[in-house]
Amino acid sequence: MDSLKQNRMKGVNLIIIVLLSFGLFGFSPGKRDTVSKKNKNSIPDTGEMPVYGNWKTFTKKDGLPADKIYCVRVDGDRVLVGTSNGMAVYENGTWKTYSVKDGLAHKGVLSIDVSEITGDVWIGTLGGLTRWSSGSFHTFTQLNSGLPNDIIYSVICDGKDVWVATGGGAGHYDTYSDQWDIYMERNAPMHEPWTYGVCAGDSKIFIAAWGGGVIEFNTKTKKFRDYVDPDEQMELDVFPDDGVVHDITTGVSYAKGILWVGTYFGLSWYDGAHWKSYFDHDSGLLSNFINYLKADGNVAWMCTDKGLSSFNGKTWVSYQKNETGKTGKIIVTKGPRIAEGAKTKEVAATSSICHNFVLGIDFNDNEIWVATSKGLCRGEKIK
Amino acid sequence: MKHKYQALFFFLFLLFSVFVVSAQEKKTNYGNTPDEVIPYGGFHKAYIDFFDKPQPFTGAGREKPEPAGLKEIRIGYLGPLEGSVMVPQGIQMLQGAQLAVEEANKKGGYKGIPFKIMEHNDVGLWGAAANKVVAMNDEHVWAFLGSIDDINTHVALRMTLKLEIPMVNSGDPDPTLTETRIPWMIRVIGDDRQSCYALSEYIYKVKKLKRVAVLRVDNRYGRVGIKEFREAARRMNHPLVLEIRYAEGDTTFTPQIQRIIDSEPDAVLLWGNAKETALALKQMRKMGMNAPVFGSDRLMSPEFLKIAGKDAEGVVTTCQYNPNLDNPKLKAFQKNYKKRFGMDSDVFAAHAYDGMNIIIDAIKKAGLNRAKIRDVLTDMKTFQGYEGVAGKIIFDASWNDIGAIWMTEVRNGEFHFFPTPPFTSGKVACNN
């Protein structure tokens, strides 16, 4: 009887010690596996997911006009970079800067795209939209054109058409007819005409409408439809997977029949019939605060305030810089979500993205270019 | 001996458990939301709550050195100064900010350098406020105060993240303003969420009215402002009997009032600017509609009393401060304001004075670095519990001021202030 009591007391003690450890010292079961020293530098099998490394950083010291990089666009052998102090072009190993005196609408360059038809470069700035064509610059503003507003958060080229997401609505410019259309709350299903991102795919234009979810415009039927958060609440998400995670949307990207939606509250995925939601607490997404996102084939890249995450629906590969030095880590999460059995492994990396506040991304076959709050960096495909 | 240690250990564990539980009990719901009206509270716990902790800013910028050789320390002002029905409020807001700057400059400014307000008119056209923020960035302001109109304030807010300019809002009560997660803005005035909760508690619990009809302006202020009341009413088992709109600037409301009469409400809630709601109230009474009338904060103005006249008697509104409080700081502000500008201060002036003083204090504490100024503004310590002339500021995790607001009742042609009623618990009556 005494030994039974003693065993019970031992059991109680053990429970108390464990509970106190959780409570007092903050020990909690981590969602990510720690890396053993033995396999510290081996990147696990990521399947079809590419892995990048050998990062190189570019800053003002290398010829950029500013360290704050808003966007990057790869155009064949050259790289176009939007900064807080003009547009820089990297070609043949050297940088050249274009500023307001060259013809840019404003020094703050938020978005860049290139027309596949003409090769014209469309530059979205804080003071209007600039077309760079055959070496000359022409600027569209609210005053000289049908541009909805001079703050161009996003610009894309879709065949002959140019679309912009602005602070005063979405704009469509037909380069053949030289005509502008403005889409706002009066002629589209937007609560307000605050637009933040735009993308094209499968004869549709998708607009990230700040406070209005996602607006879809069918270029064939000229019909709109909207996708909003079903629970209609700003402060919470009642259910995952029921629709876009929040009505404040910051970016959209469409590839291979999948619409990816970035918000400051998490990531949404839509295949035309079903929605899925991914948050930093339940998946390999580094942060819910998504500044920008871009899909390339099956892989979407999320530019967050805590690093860069990529995801193909099965596996996450994320890149994070360590707090000090130039080293970082690659975080691989196999499986879409923790609840679906996802397992995470961190791998130390001798080089990393230049800053964890990531604002833009673009790629070519073997390179990835990342725009950050403190520099531009280029990674090489290593797997 | 062994048993003594076990008992001590167990006692410590119990103490710790009690501490944890009591700490949790003190925690208020997001936005001071009463338990009874938490969204989906009677149905399902949310998968994720977005504002349980402040959103950090992890970008660069703190490493930038303080510039040398400045002749003035620029602070932006964004507000309605011309071309808007909100110009009187914008002028009050500007003057409140000016008084704070002038007082700070008398005390030596920032290290002997005077502060200067860079004024920008909040013109009210779509997107224009964003252009103004770009202009302020080009002027090298260190932070800015703005605005009143919720559309312009939202548009400006979006630019703060791109340009990394700290923003203090002292005049826009739109609940969604602080629900974007952009970590560059704080609000120092109570929002419409607080007004809606106070009104719903007062109407349904204190006055025990059940059938409420809403007449509101057809703009963002009306649409977003009334949302929390509509939802609270539904969750308190008293869904609105009618919600009907009028266009901004309307002067006749006969069709809407007839529909309100037909809906046989116990009370009417007006949500809009002073002028239109006062005109609507007069017409309502003329058409024989004598139900008690309640209103949003914008009814608490001399303009409303002047237009509504005797019909204003008994109208109950909310207000984000009490100008009659026996508070020495408030009294000094009111006296100095009247001396400086030759008019009485209003709610926008008082909150702008507090907001500008907070900006000035943040600059003095952080130095001339926007990211560091942002850090001080949002650290939930430096200005948490700030005792301003408009009252005590309590920030929630979205940097929204959830400090006390007030209610008013018109009696003998004057607004009489009284505290909002405490929330009483009620049975959750609705699933969403």
Protein model, in words:
The complex is a heterodimer of chains A (383) and B (432). Chain A has one helix at 2-25, and strands at 52-58, 69-75, 78-83, 86-91, 94-98, 109-114, 121-125, 128-133, 136-140, 152-158, 161-166, 169-174, 179-183, 195-201, 204-209, 213-218, 224-227, 236-237, 249-255, 258-263, 267-270, 275-278, 290-296, 299-304, 307-311, 315-321, 328-334, 343-349, 358-363, 367-372, 375-381. The radius of gyration of chain A is 23 Å and the shape is globular. Chain A has one helix and 31 strands. Chain A has one domain: Methylamine Dehydrogenase, Chain H. With 383 residues, chain A is mainly β. Chain B is an alpha/beta fold and 432 residues long. Chain B folds into two domains: 73-190 and 326-401, Response regulator (Rossmann fold, 3-Layer(aba) Sandwich), CATH 3.40.50; 193-319 and 407-419, Rossmann fold. Chain B is 40% helix and 15% strand. Chain B has twelve helices and 15 strands. Chain B has helices at 2-26, 87-106, 128-138, 150-163, 192-206, 220-235, 254-262, 274-286, 302-308, 328-341, 347-366, 370-378; strands at 48-49, 73-79, 115-121, 144-146, 167-169, 185-187, 212-217, 242-246, 267-271, 293-295, 316-319, 387-388, 391-392, 406-411, 414-419. Chain B is globular and about 70 Å long. The chains are: A mainly beta (383), B alpha/beta (432). At the A-B interface, α1 and β18 of A face α1, β1, α3 and α4 of B.
